[in-house]
Every structure is written in structure tokens, then in C-alpha cells.
């Protein structure tokens, strides 16, 4: 099966999409509608996040396996070290391999319940994502990705130590990194410069989520870990009705993406929240969709 790196390094810009494991049957239907809608646009790969507890983890494995089996898409499974012993992690990685999954996003994860709470490793588990990168690498011929944070991870003391730890994960054997949400193209480009200044040339993919509602705006602020810049607040503020707010959010995501592509970014990673419409609109406007013959 093809790797993420093979799909991203094709000499033209590409996009990829991220889904979450479905919570119930209705959610599963929505997810598969979105997967089928986006499949026709030939994303470079699709990733499925890894949740905090047992059943959601089974659903990640099941969903990623189904993508591998029943679609033409290249799947990537997320994996976190939260509440897992090394033996359990080996087991999950073995499941992924058995399902034909070659791509894994290796993450430490957050403490269940309160993401900002105290992190404590499983007594027989791992402490940081770089250890998981090494474990995945050790167990098979996987293409491995890691998380990156344009404003620094909330637990990092400063951007310098954050960069050191990101480069440590890449040096441990990760092939690429996907960035957390951010607001301005320069915020991502500065992260790319910090990594390049350490002599590291791994692919860095920006995370994009079109701000189509006030809810997605709040989610972006929460996930990015940064306050809303006044330029964007001013831009969205006049759009009091839902339709015009959505249109402004799509324009903004398109503008940010265009700037990133102009700066040589090889791939844009869209956080979809299991919906396809906004991603479709933006990638169509960017011309990232192959022309139909
Ligand atoms: C693209 C993307 C996808 C994600 N998908 C998921 C998902 O599917 N499921 C989920 O639960 N969460 C997910 N997350 C969230 C992620 O798990 C959390 O942000 C988590 O807090 C950090 O994970 P990490 O892998 O970056 O951890 P790490 O790289 O281990 O970093 C955690 C903190 O420790 C520091 N650090 C790292 N290594 C060392 C070291 N060796 N010594 C000292 N300090 C160190 C870092 O600077 C950072 O402050 C995702 C995040 C991103 C950006």
C-alpha cells in the first residue's frame, strides 16, 4: 500500500482529509457519505483520529480498516500513547499492519477528561511521542507522521524547546508532520522556518479547517491555543447571518491556503469533522481537484 510521503511528493500541491471515528450509526452514515463524496476528489490520504477510550479506539481501527478495504483511498491511522502499555501499543500497531495500513500518525495524546490536566504515563507505557515513533518504526515498514504546533504545544515552555521536541520526533524516524490549526499563513510559515533552521527538511503539512460557523470558530480558537487575531475577528464580525458568515469563512480558508501554496507548501490537511462540503468547496476553488476525463 502507498505511503503518505509517496502521495504528497508528487510535484504538485495535494490535499488530505481527517475524520473522526463515528460515535453512533447516524454518525457512521454521515462519515461514509463524506468519505464517498471526497473519494472522487482523490485526496492524497485520509486519516482517522484515535479517541480516549476503548470503544472509540475499536471504531478507529474498524473505520481505517474499512477505508483500506473498501475504498481507493490511502488511509492513515492515528495512535496515541494514552492509557496504553507498550504491549497494548504493539498489539494495536499489529492490528493496523494486519489491516494493510502503512501510515500511522504517532501522538502522545492528552489526559482523558481534561486535556489540560496532569499527564501521567501508563506505568508500562510511553512518556512522549518520539518514543512511539521509534516503537512504530521498530515494528514494521510504516510511514510515520507526528503533530506540530505553530504557536508551540500548550505544555511547551517556549517555541525554542517546542521546536527541539518536534525535531526530536522527526529525528526519531518520523517522515512528516501535520500542524495543529492556526489563523494566519505566516504562523505556519514561521514554524516551517524554525524547523528548517535546525537543518530538518521533513514535509510539514498545514492543518486547515474552514471557519463556517461560530462553533467552528470557537473550535479553531480552542485547538490552536492562540487568541483570535483582530484582523480575522474584524473580517468575520460583520457577518451576522449564518449564510454570509459561512461564505466569509470559505473565502478566508481559500485565501490562507492560496498563500501557503504560493509559499511552496506541498499538501494541505483538512480537518473535516466528518463533513465534506466545506473542504470540497475550498479544494475546488484552489484547483486541487483532478480534471475529469
Ligand atoms: C494533526 C494532529 C492530530 C491529532 N490527532 C489526535 C488524535 O487522533 N487523538 C488524540 O487524542 N489527540 C490528537 N491530537 C492531539 C495531541 O495528541 C495533543 O496535542 C497532545 O497533547 C500532544 O501530542 P504530541 O504527539 O504532540 O506529544 P509530544 O510530542 O510528546 O509533546 C507533548 C509535550 O511534551 C514535550 N516533549 C515532547 N517530547 C519530549 C521529550 N522527549 N522530552 C521533554 N519534553 C518533550 C513537547 O514539546 C510538548 O510540550 C492531534 C494533534 C494534531 C496536531
TrEMBL record:
UniProt-listed Enzyme Commission number(s): 1.5.1.54
UniProt xrefs under InterPro entries: FAD-linked_oxidoreductase-like (IPR029041), Mehydrof_redctse-like (IPR003171), MTHF_reductase_bac (IPR004620)
GO cellular component, one term: cytosol
Domain of life: Bacteria
Keyword Flavoprotein: yes
Keywords, sorted A to Z: Amino-acid biosynthesis, FAD, Flavoprotein, Methionine biosynthesis, NAD, Oxidoreductase
GO biological process: methionine biosynthetic process; tetrahydrofolate interconversion
Catalytic activity: (6S)-5-methyl-5,6,7,8-tetrahydrofolate + NAD(+) = (6R)-5,10-methylene-5,6,7,8-tetrahydrofolate + NADH + H(+)
One family name in Pfam for this protein: MTHFR
MF terms in GO: FAD binding; methylenetetrahydrofolate reductase (NADH) activity
Chain coiled-coil ranges: none
Enzyme class: oxidoreductase
Cofactor(s) demanded: FAD
Listed pathway(s): One-carbon metabolism; tetrahydrofolate interconversion; Amino-acid biosynthesis; L-methionine biosynthesis via de novo pathway
PANTHER family to which the protein is assigned, alphabetical: METHYLENETETRAHYDROFOLATE REDUCTASE, METHYLENETETRAHYDROFOLATE REDUCTASE (NADPH)
Protein family (similarity comment): Belongs to the methylenetetrahydrofolate reductase family.
Protein name: Methylenetetrahydrofolate reductase
Gene for this chain: metF
Amino acid at each position: 500500500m502507498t505511503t503518505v510521503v509517496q502521495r504528497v511528493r508528487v510535484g504538485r500541491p495535494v490535499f488530505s482529509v481527517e475524520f473522526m471515528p463515528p460515535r453512533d450509526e447516524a454518525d457512521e452514515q454521515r462519515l461514509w457519505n463524506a468519505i464517498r463524496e471526497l473519494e472522487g476528489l482523490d485526496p492524497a490520504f485520509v486519516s482517522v483520529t484515535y479517541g480516549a477510550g476503548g470503544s472509540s479506539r475499536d471504531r478507529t481501527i474498524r473505520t481505517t480498516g474499512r477505508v483500506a478495504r473498501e475504498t481507493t483511498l490511502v488511509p492513515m491511522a492515528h495512535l496515541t500513547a494514552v492509557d496504553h502499555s507498550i504491549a497494548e501499543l504493539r498489539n494495536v500497531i499489529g492490528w493496523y499492519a494486519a489491516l494493510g495500513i502503512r501510515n500511522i500518525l504517532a501522538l502522545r495524546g492528552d489526559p482523558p477528561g481534561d486535556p489540560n490536566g496532569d499527564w501521567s504515563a501508563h506505568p508500562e507505557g510511553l512518556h512522549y511521542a518520539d518514543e512511539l515513533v521509534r516503537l512504530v518504526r521498530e515494528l514494521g515498514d510504516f510511514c510515520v507522521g507526528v503533530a506540530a504546533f505553530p504557536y508551540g504545544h500548550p505544555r511547551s515552555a517556549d517555541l525554542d524547546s517546542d521546536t527541539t521536541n518536534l525535531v526530536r520526533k522527526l529525528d526519531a524516524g518520523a517522515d512528516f508532520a501535520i500542524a495543529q490549526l492556526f489563523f494566519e499563513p505566516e504562523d505556519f510559515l514561521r514554524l516551517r522556518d524554525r524547523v528548517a533552521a535546525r537543518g530538518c527538511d521533513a514535509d510539514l503539512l498545514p492543518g486547515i479547517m474552514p471557519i463556517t460557523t461560530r462553533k467552528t470558530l470557537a473550535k479553531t480558537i480552542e485547538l490552536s491555543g492562540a487568541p483570535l487575531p483582530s484582523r480575522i475577528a474584524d473580517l468575520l464580525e460583520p457577518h451576522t447571518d449564518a449564510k454570509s458568515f459561512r461564505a466569509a469563512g470559505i473565502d478566508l480558508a481559500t485565501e490562507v491556503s492560496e498563500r501557503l501554496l504560493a509559499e511552496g507548501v506541498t499538501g494541505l490537511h483538512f480537518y473535516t469533522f466528518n463533513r465534506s462540503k466545506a473542504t470540497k468547496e475550498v479544494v475546488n476553488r484552489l484547483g486541487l481537484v483532478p480534471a475529469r476525463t
